Amino acid sequence: MAKSRKRSASSKSGPSAKRVTPSTRSSAMHREKRFPMDKIHELLERKFPSGNVKAEAAVFLTAVLEYLAIEILELSTNVARSRSGGRDGVKVTLQDMLQAIEADSETKELIDKVRQANASAK
């Protein structure tokens, strides 16, 4: 019985029991940076109302969009660093992103194809 008292005395309860550790904070921040797969699945279902949109399609599209966003952000960060002289605190502007897209031939080709497809769909 003394052991159970010792355990209950040492276990934390109340508001101080929940502590935010650096690992939980970073995992919470990481979760916020994820693309909203549920919303993408809903958009696919709205776009194709007569068909059955599988969850795997939303997962795949989400992964592709996330990859493209990271790729463009990396290119933009490189442009911003070269503009600012390589300092630590770099702000990426819209002009940096546009310049990065124009400088990378593959990304520019992809964006141009998407623009053409959207223009012909209207």
TrEMBL record:
<dbReference type="GO" id="GO:0005634">
    <property type="term" value="C:nucleus"/>
</dbReference>
<comment type="similarity">
    <text>Belongs to the histone H2A family.</text>
</comment>
<dbReference type="GO" id="GO:0030527">
    <property type="term" value="F:structural constituent of chromatin"/>
</dbReference>
<dbReference type="InterPro" id="IPR009072">
    <property type="entry name" value="Histone-fold"/>
</dbReference>
<feature type="region of interest" description="Disordered">
    <location>
        <begin position="1"/>
        <end position="36"/>
    </location>
</feature>
<dbReference type="GO" id="GO:0000786">
    <property type="term" value="C:nucleosome"/>
</dbReference>
<dbReference type="InterPro" id="IPR002119">
    <property type="entry name" value="Histone_H2A"/>
</dbReference>
<keyword id="KW-0539">Nucleus</keyword>
<keyword id="KW-0238">DNA-binding</keyword>
<keyword id="KW-0544">Nucleosome core</keyword>
<keyword id="KW-0158">Chromosome</keyword>
<comment type="subunit">
    <text>The nucleosome is a histone octamer containing two molecules each of H2A, H2B, H3 and H4 assembled in one H3-H4 heterotetramer and two H2A-H2B heterodimers. The octamer wraps approximately 147 bp of DNA.</text>
</comment>
<protein>
    <recommendedName>
        <fullName>Histone H2A</fullName>
    </recommendedName>
</protein>
<feature type="compositionally biased region" description="Low complexity">
    <location>
        <begin position="10"/>
        <end position="19"/>
    </location>
</feature>
<dbReference type="GO" id="GO:0003677">
    <property type="term" value="F:DNA binding"/>
</dbReference>
<dbReference type="GO" id="GO:0046982">
    <property type="term" value="F:protein heterodimerization activity"/>
</dbReference>
